[in-house]
Design a protein that fits this description.
Layout: E1 7-8, E2 15-16, H1 18-31, H2 45-50, E3 57-61, H3 64-67, E4 71-72, E5 77-86, E6 108-112, H4 116-124, E7 129-133, H5 136-144, E8 150-154, H6 155-164, E9 169-172, E10 178-187, H7 193-208, H8 211-223
Parallel strand pairs: 6-7, 6-8
Antiparallel strand pairs: 1-2, 3-10, 4-10, 5-8, 5-9, 5-10
Helix pairs in contact: 6-8
Length: 228
């Protein structure tokens, strides 16, 4: 799963997360069909489309490599790399704009090793120290324990951290954006244009109305509730 995009309750098997909710709403209220979710892995999520095991894949970054194999809907949201830091940390400059503003000797930035976030910051940060750690828990602990000055992660993932710790955690989205990609529904390449128009019109309306942003906020808040 990819919280808060897609989440599955291990006790009930029910799906939540803002991409799940978009899919459910589109199926039930636009197509007038019952939506069935199928468990899979990231390794198989594209292959399942190609082999007709399912009709949509949720929350896929639209990349040139994937476009060789499948099609994509209009984006529901954007992916980029942001930084979270303690607003009381005197080492972090004020009025941050570009990634270069935090590329300073003595600033330590935690990131999950080998991820797209790691690749993105490694390409632009030459003076700051990059602390590569194996997982999300380790990177967050490094920031919270002040072994790292900043945490680099996906923008929506970092939203979870700033919402959980509003008393000290703030985020910084550099301009130009790092590793900017669109996050969309994956579809089969042979999907008829008329069907794509229906899906894309729906997504456009949901984005424009603010419904997607509300779903993202709700999904993030749900993850912060104990027991969720």
């Amino acid at each position: 799963m990819a919280p808060p995009y897609v989440m599955r309750d291990p006790k009930t098997g029910s799906y939540s997360g803002f991409f799940s909710e978009l899919c459910r709403d589109f199926g039930q209220n636009v197509l007038k069909v019952k939506v069935e979710f199928v468990d899979t892995t990231w390794d198989n999520i594209v292959a399942g489309l190609q082999s007709d095991k399912w009709d949509l894949s949720l929350a896929l970054n639209d990349t040139p490599e994937r476009e060789k194999a499948i099609g994509f809907s209009a984006p529901a949201t954007d992916y980029n790399v942001s930084f979270v830091f303690n607003k009381n940390n005197p080492k972090i400059p004020k009025n941050l704009h570009a990634a270069a503003d935090v590329d300073k000797p003595g600033i330590v930035i935690a990131v999950m090793s080998g991820t797209s976030q790691d690749k993105a910051i490694s390409a632009v940060l030459k003076q700051a120290q990059i602390m590569r750690l194996p997982g999300n828990d380790e990177t967050r602990l490094a920031l919270i324990s002040k072994r790292a000055d900043m945490l680099a992660d996906a923008n929506i993932t970092n939203m979870l951290l700033t919402e959980a710790h509003p008393e000290w955690a703030v985020s910084f989205n550099p301009t130009p954006a790092l590793a900017q990609q669109e996050v969309a529904f994956g579809v089969r390449k042979e999907t008829p244009a008329a069907d794509m128009d229906v899906l894309n019109k729906y997504l456009g309306q949901q984005v424009k109305s603010g419904a997607v942003n509300r779903l993202i906020k709700t999904s993030v808040q749900a993850m912060l509730v104990p027991g969720q």
